[in-house]
Amino acid sequence: MKHITIIGGGIGGLCLAQGLKKANLYFTVYERNAREEDWLDGYRIHLRSIGAKSLHHCLSEEVWKDFLSATAAPTDGIGFLTEDMKELVHIEESLMTGNHKVPEEGQYNVSRKLLRKVLMSGIKEHIHYGKTFLKYELLENKKIKVHFEDGSTIETDILIGADGANSRIRKQLLPDAQRVATNAIAIGGKMILDKENTTWLPDFLCTRMNVVMPKSKYFFFNAVYRKEDENYILWSFVADKKEFPNLMDGEDLKREVIHKISKWHFAFKKLIFNSDTGSLLWLPLKTMLPVSPWKSGPVTLLGDAIHNMTPLQGMGANMALFDASLLLKKLQESAAGQKDLVTAISEYEAIMLKTGFEAVNTSLKYTTQAISANRLARAVNRTWFRLCNAVPFIKRMTFANNWKGLE
């Protein structure tokens, strides 16, 4: 039986690992963090139905049930608002998902921490911590020798780079592939939904995702997360990096964002003001440039390691899960003797590159629009959204199934 080595224990790598266990294929995961606890952090993510379907494909029935138990309370779709809190359009959850009939076609709000815990269930003995990948060698016996920074090595048959946006495997396999900075930065934080904060918040900021479309430049997003004793609103503000020439943190960063939106509805400003200062993040947004197909072999990539994208479309984690599901299918076909390994990986890479970079390009388009000061284009979009809200047929034609992903 061939040995499959996964470098990186993020969402995509662990999803693939679960699928390999389900398929009774031999695998090991190597993670650079020293301990399991070092890597259980992060806020909520939104899984579209393409992510949920991919996850369902890879998980055993028992672990899938654990995932469903880990998800937060469902939200009421997504709303698009003006900066003075007037609704442009509300897209109900049922319209986003197409009235799904089975759980794997739904959409889910889940914390990264709980999702990772679910994805480690039953495979902890396959995960090795404190192993930072250094390089690989292709040996004459068709094995791959993997070197780690601690001086240790292992030999394997298949090497999967799931090692994130700064992937070392990508840099060796595809030295010309480039991850570049965009002109945008994102600032984010969270506000705890305690009794005091819920008294002044408009209901829809607490019950659904929202996107603010101001008349000129900027982008604002918020999402609610409610799970047992963890309740908060996550928000992000996106601007041209020229708007923030100096690196800031803490209260200074809060004040600067509030200053930028000084003419917006008070609730947006208070949301930022009341946010946990320690939660604030400053993130220059980067993206991968298009990658041409390469000669396939026993080394391949998935998720952010190959098609890292900006977060504005919310598809990064979903595409990593899709990659894991697709690669699992192709590895199963090879293991069953239906095709040789290189053919299987080549077929995976052809689909992965197409779907992954379609998401990269869409996300980059949204990022460009988010920081654009083109008032005419924004006015047209706002008018169209108002029309969609007023005419249900147009709303269905515009938004039905838009959030399902690749279907």
Structure, described:
By secondary structure, this protein is of the alpha/beta class. It folds into 2 domains: 3-75 and 106-179 and 288-370, FAD/NAD(P)-binding domain (3-Layer(bba) Sandwich); 182-286 and 371-404, FAD/NAD(P)-binding domain, CATH 3.50.50. It contains 15 helices and 17 strands. Helix 14 crosses helix 15. The protein is globular. It starts with a strand and ends in an 8-residue tail after the last helix.
Q: Which structural class fits the helix and strand makeup?
A: alpha/beta
Rg of Cα set: 22 Å
Average per-residue pLDDT, rounded, comes to 92
Task: State the distance separating the first and last CA atoms.
Answer: 34 Å
Q: Estimate the strand proportion.
A: 15-25%
Number of separate structural domains: 2
Number of strands: 17
CATH class of the largest domain reads: Alpha Beta
Bin the helical content.
25-40%
- For the largest beta sheet, what order do the strands appear in spatially? 5-4-13-14-15-12-16
Major sheet characteristics: 7 strands, mixed
Total helices: the number is 15
CATH topology of the largest domain: FAD/NAD(P)-binding domain
CATH-level-4 superfamily name of the largest domain:
FAD/NAD(P)-binding domain
Shape annotation: globular
- At CATH's second level, what is the architecture of the largest domain? 3-Layer(bba) Sandwich
Unreliable parts = none
